[in-house]
Specification:
Elements lengths: L8 H11 L4 E5 L2 E4 H16 L8 E5 L4 H13 L2 E4 L6 H11 L3 E4 L13 E3 L7 H4 L16 E6 L9 E5 H14 L8 E3 L6 H14 L3 E3 L5 H9 L5 E4 L1 H8 L14 E5 L5 H10 L4 E7 L6 E5 L13 E2 L4 E5 L12 E6 L11 H7 E2 L2 E10 L5 E6 L4 E3 L2 E3 L1 H9 L4 E11 L3 E10 L5 H11 L8 E4 L13 H8 L3
Parallel strand pairs: 1-10, 3-4, 3-5, 5-6, 9-10, 9-11, 11-12, 12-13, 24-25
Antiparallel strand pairs: 1-2, 7-8, 13-14, 14-15, 16-17, 17-19, 18-19, 19-20, 21-22, 23-24
Helix pairs in contact: 1-2, 1-3, 1-7, 2-3, 6-7
Amino acid sequence: MTPGHGSTVDGVLRRSARRTPARVAVEYRDRTWTYEEFDEAVSRAAGVLLGQGLKPGDRVGAYGHNSDAYLIGFLACARAGLVHVPVNQNLTGDDLNYLIDQSGSSLVLTDPDLAPRLPDGTRTLPLRDADGSLLELLASAPAHDGPEPRGEDLVQLLYTSGTTALPKGAMMTHRALVHEYLSAITALDLSAGDQPVHSLPLYHSAQMHVFLLPYLAVGATNIVLDAPDGDRLFDLIEAGRVDSLFAPPTVWIGLANRPDFATRDLSALRKAYYGASIMPVPVLERLRERLPDLAFYNCFGQSEIGPLATVLAPDEHKGRMDSCGRPVLFVDARVVDEDGKDVPDGTPGEIVYRSPQLCEGYWDKPEETAEAFRDGWFHSGDLAVRDAHGYFTIVDRVKDVINSGGVLVASRQVEDALYTHDAVAEVAVVGLPDERWIEAVTAVVVPRGEVTEAELVEHAKEKLPHFKAPKRVVFVDVLPRNASGKILKRELRDRFAES
């Protein structure tokens, strides 16, 4: 093997395997891997992939469910110098075809039940549960012992969530992700003694790069679940096997709404992480009231930065519950106006970043790359406010701010007001075209009980200036979301614009 600096994604695992070879690294269903075993499996899997005729730099799609095999596949791509392309396992049809085609994936690692959805002619390799699967081939495959990838090499295309446009593949290097792992470890107080569970989709950057890989870096034992099943999570916590949990607000809301949330013994849970979308303050207050000794961390960012950008630590919540915290170790952030100039503290503007965690641009999209990276800074598209102590609060996505009668209204403020009503289970606020108001503030509500439009409008007026209150309330059974839990407001705007 040629000498290298080891500043690579797979190097994170290799170092832990040398440091604590006999410690359990990963548990999935009935399979348990020590760090030494898992590192060996990754080397053999890298050999399997290169034995398929792939060469460094080739893109490899990953269209599978959570599993140990999925994680081995990602790390094997990293070790072999291949570019991993995680694909939402819920995608089908044109959306799925777009990602496979746009990334130029030469091979797709997949699960047997998902393979039939892939475009005709797609070359596949089963991850598990099939003859000739990646897991099955490990037993006879030689370990890869070729040149190490370099820190500046691409290791993954992280596709944006596509809430406002077609997804774009953020080009992540080994170096960028290793910087992000160190930022996560320091900001989130991750340690080898923690007992984390990973239940969110591994194709999503938050679960993979903010928690699972950083926890492998520090040598923790990681339980991987198929999905965030409340019964399984509560059982693991009550059994004392889990003390660290990450979930987006939609999952925390679901857990808090369970009938047994008030009665299960959840005292073993020490660290609670939330992120991927904005947590409604009333929901966070209910969680903290039920679990007063639980340390809550707000994690904020986006795919292009690996994805962690800011963190609000447990001791920073008092008096700033709506804040996303301060930038992590390797991130520099500013709030600017349309001309890219800094705005005074307390003034809304776009948050921009400069960081070694940032992607190299968007795969095969030079115009979008030039638009996002200007004057040496990445323009996030998030509207934020910075205070005098350096804390940031996300007001809205720039494209989600509502122009109501010439006055700009942040949808988050209206949503937080409506969440204080007992009959509101979930809510999303959007602006719909209106002849009088330009955009009418419209609340799309999933009700928890009997409630009328008039009641909710009046409730909002008690909490907000009247011009910010909804002009209209629409009731639905469920809000459309992408895989990371973000509400797809563009779908709501399209759906209700003509109704």
